[in-house]
Amino acid sequence: MLSFDSLIIKFDKSLRTLFSEAHSIRPFPDAGLPDAALDENEKKLSAALMRVNHSGEICAQALYQGQALTARDPVVQEELQQTANEETEHLAWTSRRVHELGGHLSLLNPIWYGNSLVIGALAGLLGDKWNLGFMAETERQVGAHLQSHLEKLPEQDIKSRTVVRQMLIDETRHGDIAAQLGGAELPLPIKLAMQVSAKVMTQTAYWI
Q1: For residue 185, what are the contacts with CB-CB under 8 A and spacing of at least 6?
Q2: Is residue 130 part of a domain?
Q3: Which residues make up each annotated binding site for Fe cation?
Q4: Whole-angstrom distance, CA of residue 148 vs CA of residue 53
């Protein structure tokens, strides 16, 4: 049973995720790298892709906070919270890069957050093995998405590419940990539904 204090803490975390500037404990991956000269079309492309990545991290924050709310095993709760903390760093990295490129963050982030929070909480209610399985599958799909962005980003945009590469390393590790902790393989229809949901978010956030 969740305490009132826990709910207040989670609510505060939600507000800070959506409306406060995220901070990174680790150095920014692109710190010290030169900002290559990009033409306007290349800047718009990079900014749009990094905006999508930022919205993806908003979703990840909400998913893992929701999953942690309903997880039963304290070890699982701790891992989910640790993962959410690292996703906060990703928020900071992508947000700064979007603004450096002259772009804007998605206006629909509160919607992505709310939907993902509910999905995460429902996943946790199914039990820890499914909770972890959902986390592992999420990270697999995010990894594939980040890999596709490495193929789309301009070659000379070293700063954005460096950020995305480090995010990919982190997401792969998160998925491996979830599988090692006993995450169950999700049924194919669930995986496909997750892919469809992610596609809606990424295609919308690219523009809005």
Answers
A1: 133
A2: yes
A3: 57, 87, 90, 139, 171, 174
A4: 11
Which residues form the domain of 78? 45-205
Which residues participate in the annotated binding site?
57, 87, 90, 139, 171, 174
- What is the tens place of the pLDDT at every residue in 161-194? 999 999 999 888 888 888 888 888 888 888 888 8
What six digits make up the tokens of 98?
Answer: 């979007």
Domain total of the chain: 1
Say if CB 76 and CB 128 are below 8 A apart.
yes
User: What gap in Å lies between CA 157 and CA 36, rounded to an integer?
Assistant: 6
Helix (H) or strand (E) holding 34: none
Q: Are 24 and 57 in contact (CB under 8 A)?
A: no
